[in-house]
């Protein structure tokens, strides 16, 4: 019988689907990895399990502890999914551009949500990065995964996402395109695909106009959960072969 013991055991091994309606006839074959079929509806489930496992093993996260993390929503859902099973409390700090729907999902998992202004520098005391750091100091037994610098993030994609793509394309993948937020997905997956293909696979980042990865200043933009206003340690700039800036208008138009 194939019966999972917990919903978190179903994370990963998401399928590929060919994008036939948006790719012109005669163009190359383009497929998407359907990460929203993870239990928490995003690729962030992968890093959540890896980061919590590593913290438990090191003793950084103790029984009954509280997970505090700045998140645009998806990482919070993944962390809450695992935390609920293992008996941890969660406090998530979100920028105010995160939709109310996402905030309500986090609350539905039992998390406390703290909302901070988006249009402030990362080092501003009111930024969601700074507020999360303060809460870690104030809450007894708190642990901050810090997806922006935690090596478990890229490692999770190196160990799972990359091998899945390689196996499901029978090693025929030529390009890997990913949005860049913390940098974990493109760093871990890209590193694996470059290694296994001996450099044949090209790695391309898709980045919101205004984000630092594509040469912006970090100015506000409307797309959620991708791009940054600073350079995370989880991102390895040697991995991407190119980065393409994408406007809010083009991003929203493509979803319709």
The number of helices is: 7
The CATH topology annotation of the largest domain reads as Rossmann fold
CATH architecture of the largest domain: 3-Layer(aba) Sandwich
Mind telling me the C-alpha Rg? 18 Å
**Overall strand count:** 9
Domain Tryptophan synthase beta chain-like PALP: 7-256
Family: Belongs to the cysteine synthase/cystathionine beta-synthase family.
Cofactor: pyridoxal 5'-phosphate
Protein name: Pyridoxal-phosphate dependent enzyme
Textual characterization of the structure:
By secondary structure, this protein is α/β, with parallel strands linked by helices. The chain has 2 domains: 44-143, 3-Layer(aba) Sandwich (Rossmann fold); 151-254, Rossmann fold. 33% of the residues lie in helices and 16% in strands. It contains 7 helices and 9 strands; from the N terminus they run E-E-H-E-H-E-H-E-H-E-H-E-H-E-E-H. The chain has helices spanning 44-58, 74-86, 100-108, 128-138, 152-168, 184-196, 248-254; strands spanning 16-18, 31-33, 66-70, 89-95, 112-116, 142-143, 175-179, 202-208, 242-246. The strands form 3 sheets. The protein has a 4-stranded parallel beta sheet, sandwiched between helices. It has a 3-stranded parallel beta sheet with strand order 7-8-9. Strand 3, helix 2 and strand 4 (89-95) form a beta-alpha-beta unit. The protein is globular, with a radius of gyration of 18 Å. The protein starts with 15 loop residues before the first strand and ends with a helix. The model has no long low-confidence stretch (mean pLDDT 95).
